[in-house]
UniProtKB/TrEMBL annotation:
Reactions accelerated catalytically: L-arginine + H2O = L-citrulline + NH4(+)
Membership in a protein family: Belongs to the arginine deiminase family.
Molecular functions (GO terms): arginine deiminase activity
Pathway: Amino-acid degradation; L-arginine degradation via ADI pathway; carbamoyl phosphate from L-arginine: step 1/2
Species this protein is from: Prauserella rugosa
Localization (cell): Cytoplasm
Keywords, in A-Z order: Arginine metabolism, Cytoplasm, Hydrolase
EC number assigned by the record: 3.5.3.6
GO CC term, one of those recorded: cytoplasm
One Pfam family this sequence matches: ADI
Protein name in UniProt: Arginine deiminase
């Protein structure tokens, strides 16, 4: 199989200034992660814990991902790959030390083994360390010469001394740009927490990003990028559910208000279950004043608008119907919902398969999974161009094109929108 992605990315340059103030402004630069060795770690015994619903065929997942990257590149989008960004960052000795520190969980491994692992990882070159940080390491892969320990003797050879990170694929969740600042997510699930450390290192030490200010601290209350929608410049919606907590939404609101990045943040409660783990599993924007939305959510979603109060306080209003609160905050008459008109069973099937999880490349141009035939047909009937990609293997982690992409630069929308 050819790795087309390298030809798409080339060296990571710094010609495009980072900044994102909407969901639909023409996409200029995006961070993806081409799935690799970390997916080969998934087994029927660990897939639930690692947040995958089945065991992906890795080669096919890579092909699907390469095709996704090609669609973006074909539309003039610069595609950055997380492995490249992280690898370049890790060539800085301080990043290397931080990567080692993040990988060693002394509480779980005990002092003996933690010391042995630390010593082993410290001696790795940047590329090998990067692979280990992403794909993990089993007990049997840690050279025996690195010392004995009770923990090591009592573990199975195939257990992980460093856990793999198969959900790196979903770059949307681990970081998000808000205006010209990057928010490093504080990921909620144990299987994803170390992603926070890797993204923190990548942005802190890669020459292209190290000057970027932070919109949110990596170790603050849980907020995941899949829950954050930039409805319009200055207006954010933040899903509160299985991942992002109410404390996280409040904390993000305080942070973006303090930095002048937003005037309104809508906290949107979503059902706490796997099908709706993030707000972007039920609703994504396809135009400056239009969304595609899971039909059941349309009339049930509510919002608690937060605005800056007096003397650094937060003013919290609502709850009010989400569509009304969003339109008011965005200063438009109505936030249109593309009517997918689906029967409840088809709607539920296609929501599960990320039919509502589209990635806008520009107003009215979105990438979606080809399998969501009915949703895509309705979008096209509404005048939306749907660039359909295969996702049978990629989708086994329960994420679609929006989940698999972190926009780094979008052009601002024209004032007429
Ligand atoms: N924004 C998203 O909905 N991302 C999909 C994340 C899927 C991943 N397997 C997870 O459970 O976190």
């Amino acid at each position: 199989m050819t790795n087309t992605v390298n030809t798409i990315t080339g060296p990571v340059t710094d010609t495009i200034t980072p900044g994102v103030d909407s969901e639909v402004g023409p996409l200029r630069s995006v961070l993806l992660h081409r799935p690799g060795g970390e997916l080969t770690r998934l087994t029927p015994r660990n897939n639930d814990q690692l947040l995958f619903d089945s065991i992906p065929w890795v080669g096919r997942a890579q092909e699907e991902h390469d095709a996704f990257a090609e669609v973006l590149a074909g539309r003039g989008v610069e595609v950055l790959l997380l492995a490249d960004v992280l690898g370049e960052a890790l060539s800085d000795p301080r990043a290397h030390a931080a990567g080692v520190h993040a990988a060693v969980d002394e509480r779980r491994l005990g002092t003996e083994l933690a010391d042995a692992l630390r010593s082993h990882l410290s001696g790795l070159d940047a590329d090998t360390l990067r692979e280990t940080l992403m794909s993990g390491m089993t007990f049997e892969e840690l050279p025996a010469s690195e010392g004995a320990s009770l923990v090591r003797r009592m573990h199975h050879a195939h257990d992980f001394v460093v856990d793999p990170l198969p959900n790196l694929l979903f770059t949307r969740d681990s970081s998000a740009w808000i205006g010209d600042r990057v928010a490093i997510s504080s990921l909620a699930m144990p299987a994803r927490r170390r992603e926070t450390e890797l993204l923190d290192i990548a942005y802190a030490y890669h020459p292209r990003f190290r000057a970027a200010s932070r919109a949110y601290g990596a170790h603050s209350a849980p907020v995941e990028g899949g829950d954050v929608l930039l409805l319009a410049p200055g207006v954010l919606a933040v899903g509160v559910g299985e991942r992002t907590t109410a404390a996280g939404a409040e904390s993000l609101a305080r942070s973006v208000f303090a930095d002048g990045l937003a005037h309104t943040v809508l906290a949107v409660p979503i059902a706490q279950n796997r099908a709706t783990m993030h707000l972007d599993t039920v609703c994504t924007m396809i135009g400056p004043d239009a969304v595609v939305m899971y039909p059941l959510a349309r009339d049930s979603l509510v919002a608690y608008p937060m605005r800056p109060g007096d003397d650094g306080t937060l003013r919290v209003d609502g709850p009010s119907p989400f569509l009304d609160a969003a339109a008011e905050a965005m200063g438009i008459d109505r936030l249109h919902v593309i009517d997918t008109g689906l029967d409840p069973v088809t709607a539920e099937r296609e929501q599960w398969d990320d039919g509502n999880n589209t990635l806008a490349l520009a107003p009215d141009v979105v990438v979606g999974y080809e399998r969501n035939v009915e949703t895509n047909a309705r979008l096209e009937e509404a005048g939306i161009e749907v660039l359909a990609i295969a996702g049978s293997e990629l989708g086994s982690g329960r994420g679609g094109p929006r989940c698999m992409s972190c926009p780094i630069a979008r052009d601002p929308l024209p004032a007429t929108h």
